[in-house]
Amino acid sequence: MIAKGAFHWIAIPLLIGIFATVASIQHMSFPLYFVANAFFLIAVLMMIFFRDPPRAIGKGIVSPADGKVLKVDHKSGELSIFMNIHNVHVNRAPIEGKVVEVERFPGGHSPAYSEKARKNERVEITIMSRLGPMKVIQIAGLVARRIVPYVRHGMYLQKGQRIGMIVFGSGVTVEMPDRVRIIVKEGQKVRAGETSVGEVVHDLD
């Protein structure tokens, strides 16, 4: 399955490859044949990068992103994940709830793993859950220049539902309510929607 909003990233090099192939046959041109194959390779790489595989949804609070846990702050309930170029870049809801705010902030493009990344361009999605508000922050990185949210204010999300995509390398931070205890460690690899990253300490039910 290909990520929503990624079709043109694959279609453009594919079409260029097709046109270059036709031209190489018509003109018996080896350079055009080489160009055609180069664009076909780019299209394949884009298909791999923009893959969006199904996931078996995990227990408790699930990871909003694929990647490596960069920072865990148990006191503030903040968890930061670095998404490398080879990771799936579709983000998922860590908990069930209603979207009460989707806000985009302009900013820089520092590396997503740096301290300055929090001031990068970002989209903040606040989900009102049974445990209280939970905020998912999609952060653009050095290469990532576009954040594509799939959700809007008022939507009700299921846990593990796709909420957006960040194009190329980037980071995701989730701010959890005080009723949640983070159960992953820095350096640990996680998968969006599948890896349990938090457990409920006190439930309202």
Description:
The chain is an alpha+beta fold and 205 residues long. It has 2 domains: 7-49; 61-200, Glucose Permease (Domain IIA) (Distorted Sandwich), CATH 2.70.70.10. It has 2 helices and 14 strands, in the order ααββββββββββββββ. The longest helix is centred in the N-terminal third of the chain and has 21 residues, at 7-27. The radius of gyration is 19 Å and the shape is elongated.
Summarize the structure.
The protein is an alpha+beta fold and 205 residues long. It is 20% helix and 34% strand.
- What is the number of independent domains? 2
CATH topological fold name of the largest domain: Glucose Permease (Domain IIA)
CATH architecture of the largest domain: Distorted Sandwich
State the fourth-level CATH superfamily of the largest domain: Glucose Permease (Domain IIA)
- As residue ranges, the low-confidence spans are none
Share of residues in strands: 25-35%
Mean pLDDT: 88
Write the layout of secondary structure elements.
Blueprint: H1 7-27, H2 30-49, E1 61-62, E2 67-73, E3 78-83, E4 90-92, E5 97-105, E6 122-129, E7 132-140, E8 147-149, E9 156-157, E10 162-166, E11 170-175, E12 180-182, E13 189-190, E14 196-200
Antiparallel strand pairs: 1-14, 2-3, 2-13, 3-11, 4-10, 5-6, 5-9, 6-7, 7-11, 8-10, 12-14
Helix pairs in contact: 1-2
List keywords for this structure.
Glucose Permease (Domain IIA); 14 strands; 2 helices; 8-stranded antiparallel β-sheet; single chain; elongated; alpha+beta; 3-stranded antiparallel β-sheet; 205 residues
